[in-house]
Write a structure and sequence with these properties.
Radius of gyration: 25 Å
Structural class: alpha+beta
Helix content: 40-55%
Oligomer: single chain
Order of helices and strands: HHHHHHEEEEEEEEE
Shape: elongated
Strand content: 15-25%
Number of strands: 9
Length: 253
């Protein structure tokens, strides 16, 4: 008589393995967010407090994310969701301009890493089946590759403008404008924006739709038609509120 032995998987053991796998994925996302936040600041050439704090938090959580720490994975997921919502306007703005190739790519990578942390944290908490992990990682990988390729194509098509005689030169570097004060005569004046940062900047005239938009590492020229008075130039990219220039337009003699 033949006896058939069926090997049954212990449900508790299987559930434990599933949770551990989701926690591991959550750790991968948190680690990637930490590393890429540092790389982004190096590329920008400036310390950006929101990005630095976000990266530091995810880096700290990644150290302790292991085993069946569902509560820590949940905390990571909640923080990831808050990070996504808190930086939504800046993220959308950056991802809508692939011509700033480096900044676009890094923003995409950080956003996807944070999103993975959120989904994995939720997966560990809800004890989702680990079957969904492979499609998740493959999808994220495909988006990363596609995004980087798109950024490379878009940024390679950007051509810089050269200043003309009489143009006012404005330099954007380390998230600051130079000079901080400009005096010009009324009428049409040419401005040349030299963007030395890897992220997009604009030279926008307050109270007007006149602006110059310069992708990362490019120089762009524009002409402003100005009436006598006091104005302010600013960068309308979210998070760049500190960038400003006092503009005085004097009546033509």
């Amino acid at each position: 008589m033949t006896h058939v032995r069926e090997q049954l998987t212990d449900p508790v053991e299987e559930e434990s393995s599933t949770v551990t796998t989701w926690v591991r994925v959550c750790r991968i996302g948190a680690t990637a967010a930490f590393v890429w936040s540092i790389v982004l600041q190096i590329i920008i050439g400036a310390f950006v407090p929101p990005i630095a704090v976000l990266g530091a938090i995810f880096g700290l959580l990644a150290v302790f994310l292991a085993g069946e720490r569902r509560r820590l994975a949940l905390l990571t997921g909640v923080l990831a969701l808050l990070a996504i919502l808190g930086n939504l306007s800046g993220t959308i703005d950056e991802l809508s301009h692939p011509d700033s190739g480096v900044a676009f790519s890094m923003t995409l990578l950080i956003s996807l890493a944070v999103l993975v942390s959120f989904i994995a944290g939720l997966g560990a908490t809800m004890r989702w089946s680990s079957v969904g992990i492979r499609p998740l990682l493959l999808s994220v990988g495909a988006i990363m590759v596609g995004g980087v390729v798109l950024a490379g194509i878009a940024s390679s098509s950007v051509s810089s403008s050269q200043p003309l005689a009489g143009d006012v030169t404005v330099v954007a570097e380390l998230n600051q404008f130079e000079p901080m004060e400009i005096v010009v005569s009324a009428g049409e004046t040419g401005f040349w924006l030299d963007n030395r940062d890897g992220i997009r900047h604009t030279l926008s005239l307050e109270g007007s739709d006149q602006e110059i938009d310069a992708p990362g590492y490019s120089s762009q020229r524009g002409v402003f038609d100005l009436e006598p008075g006091q104005y302010t130039f600013f960068c309308d990219v979210p998070g760049h509120e500190s960038m400003g220039i006092d503009l005085t337009v004097e009546a033509s003699s």
